[in-house]
Amino acid sequence: MKLPTRKFLLRFIIASLSVTAALGIVSVLRGGFGETGAKILGTVAGADAASILALCCTGPAKSGSHRAVQLGGIGSAGLGLAGGVYLIWSDAAFSGIQEGILRATVVLVIAAAASAHICLLLPSRSFGRQVRAVVTGTVVCTSVAAELAANYALYPYFDPGDAYLRVLLVLLILDALGTIVILLMRRLGRPQAGAPPDPRRTAPATAGDNNAGPAGALG
Length: 219
Fold this sequence. Notes:
Elements: H1 6-30, H2 34-56, H3 64-89, H4 96-121, H5 129-154, H6 162-188, H7 207-210, H8 213-218
C-alpha cells in the first residue's frame, strides 16, 4: 500500500496553517466571527494536527512491523479527524451516539500520537545494539502508556485507582527519558554497516580542505 508522500503532506500542512492564521487574523480584526467561523477554525486546526501526525508516520519502512505502525497511525489520524469534524459540525443534542463518537475519537487520537512517536523512533534502531535496546524499551513504554491512557476514554466511569495513574505517569516519564537518550546516542553514534550513510558524515571535502595539502594534514 502506497503511503501519502511527505511533500503532499507538507504542502497540505502549510496550506492548513495559512488558513488557520488567516481565520485568526479575521477574528481579531472583527472581534469574533460567530459560531460558524469557530467551527471552521476548529476543523482546520484539527486537519493541521491530523496531518502532522500522519506526516510523522511516513517515510521508508525499516520492517513489516514498522509499515504496520505507519498504516495504523495514518488510519487513526484520518478517522480521528473524521470523528472530530462530525462532533464540531453536528447540531444534534449531545446523546449516547455523540458520546460514543467522542470516546472513539479520543482513542484514535491517542493511537495516532503513539504511532507517530513510534515511527520517529524505529529508524534509530540502525545505530547499534545499545540504541536498539533503548528504542525497544521506549516503544514498549509508549505502547503500554497509550493503552492505559486510552482506557480512560474507552470505558465510562473508569476509575482504576491511584496505582494505575502512578504506573501511567512512570511510563510517560520513561518514554520521555528514552526519547532524549535516543537523540543523544544518535548524535554521538553512527549507523551500523548496511544502514544509509549520514550525509553529514559523508559530505565531500571543501576547497579549503583540498588545498590544505601535506602541511595542512601535518598541522
